[in-house]
Backbone:
């Protein structure tokens, strides 16, 4: 804290690295609280890329200060820079890609001031990757729903499981008194160490019991990306330091043993469910892991745990033993067996046990008909898939005469499945069955349809088989592969188009289908999905391993005008040409223009009820006027070059070996003299059409009620009922006066 500056009520510290798509939302969410005496400090930890004039151009008021590091120093150092410069009596932290809900920070500050506590915790909303749809962070919902003020950790035991620094506000004098700063050696995973140091030092702890901010989950962030050896070192280091903090506090205060045991339990649980380190140690292809193996041995031998740990009331709340998870169903016996194996340096046994539990998650019917050929169309998105699927559906009888089945199983039949009349998502229900526990039933029905048809070749088509948008893609893909393995002879193929145009077109489609993800800007969309969409090896390799052959990549830009001919030649199905000559394929699902997409995005942002969004969009697309604005990509030429560069780095060689080899230098050169302007606002006619569609979607049924702070936002309208049960004395009183109840 800076003693030379006059104090203010609150300082919010926002470290910045490259969150250009989100920083305005983060700062605006602070300024919109109506707090008198608010200071916002942005710490620029990426000065090599973002000079001061970048922040000057954002137009923030004087209450927002920007401090610049001389060089990148890491998230912990950025927060420490903010702490040193803060003038606030109370200090809070906000990540640059997160934001406060309306009135949330103000309520948090008010309670912190009234409680006078050294630190005041509040619950947090969490979003899904790629969507603004909110729910209360599960741990917060279970542990921190009560509003209370307590003297210290021994009187507020659940505070041991606060995990994030940004979920609390801290008195500045407490931070100084306790000498609390972030450990700059923890360039990642720094939060819990700071919080654990805070809760063990605090003389008083309060909790608001309501969510006030939004943790925006992002693809490629720490919480969603794959770890490497550097990440594993930081994760193990964090576990060691947290155990040391809790052990020292327990000794210093003579705390009951349960506090340290909870931390030991938490350490083993993190190794089982959160830190995918065992396979790397077993592979032994990096000397770093030899050292980490010894450190894990010492961690697992830190103290004895018995079965009674699972009876601890706080452990019960966060315990994942016996629950479904991406690691499978881990039993209590498994938990202790893994701890024993790590203690004895038997990482092969620990890894094997986890692999066995994960394998039992997969559902399959067991029936694997032999001798059948599968033509597997894997998209990609916006490469004429709807036209192909319409053609296959229209010619299902002609194809059956040739021994080719385009199954009805898995095709949506609800006309309102799509927001556009021409939409057809292919065999989407085969994929969605993986999420709702109907996979066995659905795929068995597919087997029966194949058997009845007598066809030896099956044609499945769905862009979403690649699942680029699913958070659980790494877990669900093996299940899909297991179900597809019922076919002996699998021929995967896909159309690919130039990646910058593909990303732009896919963004428009995400907006048009009416998901909550369709309320975001294309810059936010890029942050979440550009990395996976430009990584073809990551997307297609599981299907190549299944098929035992390379996927055939067909150039949509070169062959998309006659895709049936391209498929026939690539897959050795000349009979498809004859069917196409009798009923030619035709374009039925055109890409929407920028203005129409902008209006659709507005609908997605305004209507939180999924039913209303879909109804309004269907109405709007049928009545929207033709746009008169100049058409272009949403992406600027600079962004398009970045997409092409990333695709070339990740996928060019791999894709060329499979048939897709455009001239990248020609694609980039074509952008040099490209004229471009950002999308304009809505014309009066388009704006009116959008508003009228929203109004016509409103019915007399209850719409989604935005919840009071403390409850997740549902995607569909909830229903409520109130039951009044009079007290027995009131019933007797009413009867006495002859007013029976």
Residues:
């Amino acid at each position: 804290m800076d003693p030379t500056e006059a104090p203010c009520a609150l300082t919010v510290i926002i470290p910045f690295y490259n969150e250009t798509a989100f920083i305005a939302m983060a700062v605006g969410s602070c300024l919109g609280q109506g707090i008198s005496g608010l200071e916002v400090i942005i710490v620029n930890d990426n000065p090599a890329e973002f000079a001061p004039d970048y922040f000057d151009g954002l137009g923030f008021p004087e209450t927002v200060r920007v401090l610049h590091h001389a060089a990148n120093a890491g998230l912990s150092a950025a927060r420490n820079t903010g702490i040193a410069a803060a003038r606030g009596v109370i200090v809070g932290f906000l990540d640059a890609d997160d934001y406060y809900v309306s009135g949330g920070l103000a309520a948090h500050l008010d309670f912190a001031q009234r409680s006078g506590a050294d630190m005041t915790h509040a619950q947090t909303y969490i979003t899904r990757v790629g969507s603004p749809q909110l729910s209360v962070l599960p741990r917060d919902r279970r542990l921190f729903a009560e509003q209370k003020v307590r003297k210290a950790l021994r009187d507020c035991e659940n505070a041991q499981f606060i995990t994030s620094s940004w979920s609390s506000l801290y008195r500045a004098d407490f931070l100084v008194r306790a000498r609390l700063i972030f450990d700059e050696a923890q360039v990642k995973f720094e939060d819990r160490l700071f919080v654990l140091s805070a809760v063990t030092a605090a003389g008083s702890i309060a909790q608001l019991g309501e969510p006030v901010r939004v943790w925006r989950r992002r693809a490629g962030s720490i919480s969603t990306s794959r770890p490497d050896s550097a990440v594993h070192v930081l994760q193990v280091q964090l576990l060691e330091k947290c155990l040391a903090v809790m052990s020292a506090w327990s000794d210093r205060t003579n705390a009951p043993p349960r506090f340290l045991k909870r931390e030991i339990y938490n350490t083993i649980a993190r190794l089982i469910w959160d830190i995918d380190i065992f396979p790397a140690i077993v592979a032994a292809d990096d000397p770093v892991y030899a050292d980490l193996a010894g450190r894990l041995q010492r961690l697992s031998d830190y103290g004895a745990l018995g079965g009674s740990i699972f009876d601890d009331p706080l452990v019960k709340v966060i315990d994942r033993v016996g629950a479904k998870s991406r690691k499978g169903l881990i039993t209590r016996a498994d938990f202790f067996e893994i701890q024993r194996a790590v203690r004895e340096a038997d990482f092969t046994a620990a890894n094997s046990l986890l692999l066995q539990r994960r394998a039992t998650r997969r559902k399959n019917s067991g029936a694997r008909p032999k001798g059948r050929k599968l033509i597997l169309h894997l998209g990609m998105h916006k490469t004429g898939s709807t036209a192909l699927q319409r053609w296959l559906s229209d010619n299902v009888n002609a194809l059956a005469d040739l021994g080719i089945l385009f199954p009805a199983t898995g095709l949506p039949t609800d006309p309102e499945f799509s927001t556009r009349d021409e939409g057809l998502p292919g065999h989407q229900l085969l994929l969605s069955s993986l999420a709702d526990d109907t996979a066995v039933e659905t795929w068995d029905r597919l087997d029966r349809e194949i058997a009845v048809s007598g066809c030896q070749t099956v044609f499945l088509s769905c862009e979403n088989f690649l699942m680029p948008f699913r958070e659980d893609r790494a877990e669900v893909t093996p299940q899909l592969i297991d179900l597809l393995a019922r076919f002996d002879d699998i021929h995967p193929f896909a159309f690919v188009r130039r990646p910058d145009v593909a990303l732009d077109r896919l963004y428009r489609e995400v907006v048009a289908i009416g998901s909550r993800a369709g309320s975001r800007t294309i810059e936010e969309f890029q942050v979440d999905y550009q990395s996976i969409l430009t990584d073809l090896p990551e997307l297609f390799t599981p299907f190549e391993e299944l098929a035992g052959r390379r996927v055939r990549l067909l150039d949509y830009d070169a062959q998309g005008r006659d895709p049936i001919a391209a498929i026939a030649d690539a897959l050795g199905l000349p009979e498809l040409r004859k069917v196409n000559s009798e009923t030619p394929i035709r374009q039925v699902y055109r890409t929407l223009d920028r203005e129409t997409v902008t209006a659709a995005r507005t609908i997605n942002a305004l209507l939180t009820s999924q039913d209303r969004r879909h109804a309004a969009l269907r109405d709007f697309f049928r009545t929207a006027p033709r746009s008169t604005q100049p058409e272009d990509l949403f992406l600027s030429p600079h962004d398009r070059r970045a997409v092409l560069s990333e695709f070339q780095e990740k996928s060019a060689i791999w894709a060329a070996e499979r048939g897709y080899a455009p001239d990248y230098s020609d694609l980039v050169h074509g952008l040099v003299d490209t004229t471009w302007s950002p999308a304009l606002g809505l014309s009066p006619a388009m704006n009116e059409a959008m508003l009228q569609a929203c109004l016509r979607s409103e019915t007399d049924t209850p719409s989604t009620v935005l919840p009071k702070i403390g409850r997740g936002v549902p995607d569909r309208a909830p229903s409520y009922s109130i039951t009044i049960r009079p007290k027995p004395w009131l019933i007797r009183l009413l009867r006495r006066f002859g007013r029976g109840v």
The radius of gyration is 29 Å.
